[in-house]
C-alpha cells in the first residue's frame, strides 16, 4: 500500500518520540478515566450496551464450566469468538455482576483503543508518513464519537485495533516482509468479526493491483480462510447452521419487520450509516463533517493514502451493505473500517493545516472542544438506567426462582441471574428459540421452557409477539411497570 520505512521500530530509535508517544497515550488514558469516573447509571446510560452484558455472562459461564451459554442452560454461538476468548480468563469476575462487567469491560476496551492509537503511530512510521500517523492517533483518542463507539463493551475496540494492524500487515506483505505475522493478523481479524472477511477481500485486491501474484495472495490469506471455514463448519456441526445465532436472529427480525411493513428501505439504512460516521456523539455535527471533507481533499492527493482508503472504504461499505441486506440494519460498531477512514482523512486535513498554515496551529485545539461541545449537547442515550430500575422492582415483586423471559436480556441477565433464570427470547444468544421464531410458535417455546414472566419494553413484547400464535400482551395487568410511554415503558407480565 505504501513504501516501507527501513528505520528501527519507533520506541527503540528515538527517545523523544517515545516520550511523545507516552504523553499522547497518557492523555488518551486520562480522558477515558474521566469518562469512567462518573456515576454508574450515567455511565451505562451514555456508553455501554446490552451486548456488553451478553458478553460478560457468556464469558462468565464459560469460565465457570457451564459452556457457551448466556442463561446457563441454552447453548449459543451468538458472539464474536476472539472477544469471548479474551474475556474468558476474567469471566468469573464478570458473571452476574453488572457493575463489575461495566467497569472491567470499559477499562479493557480503553486499553485496546490505546493500543490501536499506538498501532496508528507505527503505521505512519512504516509508511514514511509519521506526521499523519501521529495526527490520526490523536484524532482517534479525543473524538467523542469514536470514544462512544469503542466504549460500548463489545468487540468494537478490538476490531478497530485489528483493522489498523491489517493495514500494517498489508504494507508489510506488499514488501514481502513479515508474511507469517501478516497472515496471523488477517486470521485474527476474521475471528474478531466474521464480516471483516470483506475487508480482507479488498486487501487482496489492493495487493493484486500492486503486482502480487494470485498464488502469493491466496497463500497469505490461507490462515484467515481456514479460520472462517473452521468457524462455519463448527457452527454447522454443533448448531446445524453455519451462521451464528445472532445473525440468524436478526435476519428473522428483519423479515418480520418487512412482513409488517416496518422495515427501513436499504437505501435509507445506507444514508443512516453515512450520518452515523459524522456524528459528534448522538447526532450529526458539522464540526465532524467539514474537517473530514476538507481532509479528503488532501488525502486523495497522497497516492499511498488513497490505497489505504480504497481498502477501508471498499471493505467497510461491503460490510455495511452485507449487514443491511441480510439482517435489515446495522450497529455502529460494525462500521470500524469506515470510522478509521474518517479518522485518516480528518488527520490528513489537520496535518495540512499544521504544515502549510503555521499561523493557524493554535486554533487546532479548538476543534476537539467543538466536538465535545456538540457531544454534550446531544449525547448518546441508552435505556440501561430503566433496565436497572426494572431489575430492582423485580427483586421486590417476584419470588426467587421465577423464570423470566426477555428480548433485551443482557443487563437483566447480569443483574438478576443470581436469584432468577433469565432467558433470552429474541434468539441473539439463544439457539433453541430460533426454530420457534421461524415457525412463529414462540408461545410454545415459553411453555416448554416454563417461562413465568415476560420482562421488556411494551413495544418489544408486542413486536416479538408476532412470532407467537396468540398475543403475548392480552390486556393483563402488569406485575410492574417502569416509565409511562406506551411503547418504551418496561413492563413485567405473567405468561398466559
Q: Mean of residue pLDDT?
A: 92
Radius of gyration in whole Å, from Cα?
A: 23 Å
Order of helices and strands: HHHHHHHHHHHHHHHHHHHHEHEHHEHEE
Number of domains: 2
Largest sheet geometry: 5 strands, mixed
Q: What overall form do the CA principal axes indicate?
A: globular
- Termini separation comes to 61 Å
Give start-end ranges of low-pLDDT stretches.
1-8
Notable features of this structure?
496 residues; mainly alpha; 2 domains; five-stranded mixed sheet; 24 helices; 5 strands
What would you note in describing this structure?
The chain is globular. A 5-stranded mixed β-sheet has the order 2-1-3-5-4. Mean pLDDT is 92; it is low at 1-8. The longest helix is centred in the first third of the chain and has 29 residues, at 98-126. The chain has helices spanning 10-13, 15-36, 40-46, 50-63, 81-87, 91-94, 98-126, 130-142, 144-150, 156-174, 179-192, 197-209, 214-239, 245-259, 266-277, 286-299, 303-327, 336-356, 366-377, 384-397, 410-416, 434-439, 442-448, 458-464; strands spanning 403-406, 421-424, 453-457, 480-482, 490-494. The chain is 64% helix and 4% strand. With 496 residues, the chain is mainly alpha-helical. The chain folds into 2 domains: 10-37 and 97-377, no CATH class; 384-494. The chain has 24 helices and 5 strands.
